[in-house]
Amino acid sequence: MTYKLAELSGPAVAQNLTDTSIVVIPTGAIEHHGAHLPLITDALIASSVAEEAVVEGRSQGLDLWLLPTLTYTKSDEHAWAPGTMWLSAETLWSTLIDLGRSIATTPARKVVFVNGHGGNTALLGVANRELRRQFGLATFSMPAGLAQAAPEELGFGIHAGYAETSVVAHLRPDLVSMDLAERNVPEPMADLKYIGFNGYPVSFGWTSDDFGPSGVIGDPTGATPEAGKSLFTESVHRAVAALTEISAFTTRRADPPASEAGS
Amino acid sequence: MTYKLAELSGPAVAQNLTDTSIVVIPTGAIEHHGAHLPLITDALIASSVAEEAVVEGRSQGLDLWLLPTLTYTKSDEHAWAPGTMWLSAETLWSTLIDLGRSIATTPARKVVFVNGHGGNTALLGVANRELRRQFGLATFSMPAGLAQAAPEELGFGIHAGYAETSVVAHLRPDLVSMDLAERNVPEPMADLKYIGFNGYPVSFGWTSDDFGPSGVIGDPTGATPEAGKSLFTESVHRAVAALTEISAFTTRRADPPASEAGS
Amino acid sequence: MTYKLAELSGPAVAQNLTDTSIVVIPTGAIEHHGAHLPLITDALIASSVAEEAVVEGRSQGLDLWLLPTLTYTKSDEHAWAPGTMWLSAETLWSTLIDLGRSIATTPARKVVFVNGHGGNTALLGVANRELRRQFGLATFSMPAGLAQAAPEELGFGIHAGYAETSVVAHLRPDLVSMDLAERNVPEPMADLKYIGFNGYPVSFGWTSDDFGPSGVIGDPTGATPEAGKSLFTESVHRAVAALTEISAFTTRRADPPASEAGS
Amino acid sequence: MTYKLAELSGPAVAQNLTDTSIVVIPTGAIEHHGAHLPLITDALIASSVAEEAVVEGRSQGLDLWLLPTLTYTKSDEHAWAPGTMWLSAETLWSTLIDLGRSIATTPARKVVFVNGHGGNTALLGVANRELRRQFGLATFSMPAGLAQAAPEELGFGIHAGYAETSVVAHLRPDLVSMDLAERNVPEPMADLKYIGFNGYPVSFGWTSDDFGPSGVIGDPTGATPEAGKSLFTESVHRAVAALTEISAFTTRRADPPASEAGS
Amino acid sequence: MTYKLAELSGPAVAQNLTDTSIVVIPTGAIEHHGAHLPLITDALIASSVAEEAVVEGRSQGLDLWLLPTLTYTKSDEHAWAPGTMWLSAETLWSTLIDLGRSIATTPARKVVFVNGHGGNTALLGVANRELRRQFGLATFSMPAGLAQAAPEELGFGIHAGYAETSVVAHLRPDLVSMDLAERNVPEPMADLKYIGFNGYPVSFGWTSDDFGPSGVIGDPTGATPEAGKSLFTESVHRAVAALTEISAFTTRRADPPASEAGS
Amino acid sequence: MTYKLAELSGPAVAQNLTDTSIVVIPTGAIEHHGAHLPLITDALIASSVAEEAVVEGRSQGLDLWLLPTLTYTKSDEHAWAPGTMWLSAETLWSTLIDLGRSIATTPARKVVFVNGHGGNTALLGVANRELRRQFGLATFSMPAGLAQAAPEELGFGIHAGYAETSVVAHLRPDLVSMDLAERNVPEPMADLKYIGFNGYPVSFGWTSDDFGPSGVIGDPTGATPEAGKSLFTESVHRAVAALTEISAFTTRRADPPASEAGS
After folding, report:
1. CB of D141 within 8 Å of any CB in chain E?
2. Where are the domains of chain D?
3. Nearest CA in chain D to E132
4. What Gene3D superfamilies does this protein's entry cite (chains A, B, C, D, E, F) (predicted)?
5. Per-residue pLDDT tens over the stretch A156-167
6. C-beta of residue D72 within 8 angstroms of C-beta of residue D117
7. Confidence of residue C261 (pLDDT cuts 50, 70, 90)
8. Residue F252: its pLDDT value, please?
9. Contact F203 A241 (CB under 8 A)
10. How many CA atoms lie within 13 A of F112 on its CB side?
11. What is the DSSP letter of C22?
12. Which of A163, B190, D86, D137 could form a disulfide with D75 if both were Cys (CB 3.0 to 4.6 A apart)?
């Protein structure tokens, strides 16, 4: 049987899903990723990791169901760059609420967003809680890719840098123009102790042109398909491990059955 | 060069698109299509027709660029059926506005929605005007599939009937369960002169369970892959012809260049 | 007894309406109609046709109740022209939802929008479904006027052309300045096979200044009060016939009684 | 020439209105007014007073233009009563913003809401400021009717009481059922010093069923057409006097010309 | 025990509040108040009056609970002046709804807004009704300060004038710069019979720069701490008297218990 | 001179702030914190840390200005508990946008949210970017308190646990009921490798009743005022250090001057 939820019929959803089922939704982006990577980068990575993880997880007995990727998401930090196709925070929020409402009518009680675009992370976090409160779903989100960076990136390989470029070079080498890859690292930030992109105590509001016109934050110049293959494989393994943990996860408050959920 | 806009880089969008470029966006749905068809039916048909039409149109010299399918759309008429993943009218509206705003920052001035789900048609019509007024884009929408019906459908083969079932049987035979196909035609409506689904003077508000629990409106029982192939081919031809006309279309009011567009 | 719902008292609404009652709401517009017609044109035609049809329909035994005209509606295609008083799509949408919610608390289960402004048609279609889904009402919309056109209009007499001008010349001759009437027909569109205003496969987004500064789309120069009288009479007859059909219309899903309706 | 703005053509609006022009919009309601008065009461009174005042004011040289009545407004305090057709606060707010935006594109710089429904008063006050800030319009609102009450009303003749009943008995005697008129006065409130309907320091939130099931707040039993005629005449005189003052009103900040207004 | 609701624990709220409890919320503003008064003026006065009144009222046996001040509110009339920190009408509206929803889950059934900013008055009035209708709360709003004016103000001491300046000079003399106080009275308005700020039949839309650049409407030059002390004391007395009346206030419709309230 | 921005007059804001000024806004919450802590806990900690940090930072030459605390924020995870006064995500979002718009009209170009409530963190992150994109402000957010936990908390002292209880015991010992403090640690989560509250790859949606009825997540039983004093002091030091870094922070894209900012 297919692992793609949308390839089932409506009645088959009602019959085949149960309260152990986990719905997996990749969330990507269509946004500026420098001159060397395609706009589709984040959607490509999220879709590929999620699909592989669902296939592998099912082979290990997890009750996983893949939904189509949310391709267009909140790329407001790249709104200045032609080609970026972005939803406002309000629109992505409404989309996530609507999906949660819809999923809550199936027997499944768990939803996981496998997210390929950092600009969605915070809003997904807010939505996770809203979907739990409004619809009683158990909700989760996780990054599709790994944050691993090249040393030249000084920890700032967050967008179109070594890791993303390598993974795309592995998945779709035809879409990468390494001759156009250029390093763009906000070096002065390396000296900062409080302000940073992730894991720092101070979060800051930025758009990608804050760091120059290239649309890159990181150093893609050393990226290779081999590194990409390795990163991709690790990402999938991590995702499967996380889905395994999600499958067993429960809290003291029982999730309501589908018949009582909904708004 | 790729015909998929999102496979370009941001700078490549700025370089390769011009004011003759036409952006094509398939709009599908994930919704109940009876027991014999997959939820993905409308998205599948819209994506397939649009992609074929873009490829064929480009081979004829049209400057066409395909964007990823809007998979989740306004399936409120099937909201009652588990498996339907639907956006509210407000959410789809916001999504369309956001996409228009984004496209208006590229050199392209024309957008075409190739729509696989009848429940989107009216809202796409409203959005066409809004995107023109707000962003100066020339906007168009058209059905992906053909309305051709089997005689047994009495003109009501609008959802999961002969045409859709045949086309899916052609495109993805593995997703069709002909043994579960059953005829569900609102026969009393055949006598009506004013009220009807399309092309009648009186439009009416319906949800698919108004016509029984099957989620079908039409008669899929006679559907064949051969008929599907023929319908699909015709749909693509019509789409290419329409895109050719769209390419030459202009009005007295000049479309503003990208630099002046936007809100 | 009055046929105007709002001339009843509240308790009289509860006593006199039943589940066979049909609430009729004319929807007009206050918008630019060229130099020869008043802004009120669409509201005038919708109000007049709807009122006549309600009177005539009641004389034939239909249980019809007229509500006041929604005078201000979605005239965004004429927003550029001073004098146009327009609601955004969002505002008209909210208004229709609010009216549906209100009507659902009366015993009546059917609502018909008799629409004088083409710019409302698509949004009324979307709202018909929303009111059915949210409130269980049976909802309908129909054009107030006839689309009949003069040959010189090449099928494009959609705004301030022969038909509308004739009908206003019949209803309110004092408001028509035939000396200012001028033909404005988008002739190049006559050769198009796919793109068109109504009944064509490709819908397009337009504002009325796309076709020049006159605010007319059609040819009003041959309009006469006699033609208007005939068109008006036919429109009323068609509306009565449609209301008769609506009165008998039912689907398999029973409409819920008022006590269970509402959000 | 007509005094009804919507009876002008678009070009005639641009030619005939100037920055001395005042646009007058009656705001009514369709809401429960007890068993003896029609739902249309407030819309009837607002429309009648505004129209008479415009006619009389123009005869005295004021540059007044009447727009069609906003018939459906914010009757949330009567939402419990079938027959009440009410807009939410949000919807009326959006409607007022949209109208302000539209009027700001005409040469007129002043707008007056002549309001027949107390439930709109506060929101109109909020909107007056918003329209001034957003569009630079000079905005005003005033009650259509007089607050004059019968002694038996203890000052509480605010809804369907002596004054409103008398005026409707004057304007449309066919719509009044005096045999169903009954006194419903919240007598305990007469002893209150701080809490009250209007002019008291403490405003309170009420719905009309807080005062019993009749939907009346006041004492209509002594109403007469003669009193109504007198009240109506006085209302019109007051409205004309107020419009005269509005016509001369200015502040230190110059109103921007139409070409600079708008958002 | 504390009189500050937020100093209780959650369980203590459930134990200590009953259906006789009254929740008091001061509503202030951070907005331009001329060169002589601080932005915090309205929030300061509202907080001080409300707190004193709660303390005094409790000493007289009233079951009063103070919530933290809504400091940022709808100061759109001063949006032009740097330093004004204002919420839009929509945002304040949503905030009030959210607070009402929250309060409705406690045992308390009455809420009083003690308002220090005139620009909130109308919207609070609209919200009072909405909270009553949606959540069944008994809702009240009242001005924190007294409208008493100096004769030189001609009745226009509504913003940063004699009364407000005196009260701040009493409460926080360090924040008043009497050397910068200047009279700014819209003298021409003194002759008007219909148009005025409060208690006049015609309400008008104004922003504070309509009356010149000073941001003052009134005459603060004669303000003294002594007058402020007296005004403050009177304000508190009036508030306590009003709260006493509110405590005894009831309507025929019983307020629903907490368990049934909420949306 | 005061360090409280709202104690300045409007003109003083324009004179005393410059593009080096940093506006500091504490964000708290009024929400269930177990039986032993007051609802005001988060607002108290955020206000206290922010105020101390502003005072200390100014003494070190930083150009800091404190605005009043946003007391009511997004406590949806405690919405089930009476006493929680929460804004929806949409309302807090609108509030943050409105504040950003207001601040952008002052000379200051930097804004820092010092946040006492974890439930706001993600939305503040989303808003930081929105305020930068829309208004050109440099925006920052940071936790007010330290995450330091007691060993018994197994890393889960995130709400009303050791750290928060200690700090409140230091700041307001009168508001802490140590006899009601009880440990509530989601022990099974300690074994999880992927799913966790902070710093884990998988984020999950939870409401506080998921972990039992106590409203505590952590172990407050060992909390002491001394530990609270130490934690508080460290928090202030960290905040000052972070503000120092923020003061020097810049990106390649220059922040626009106030005159060009705003929407």
Report:
1. yes
2. 5-256
3. D205
4. Creatininase
5. 899 999 999 999
6. no
7. very low
8. 67
9. no
10. 32
11. E
12. D86
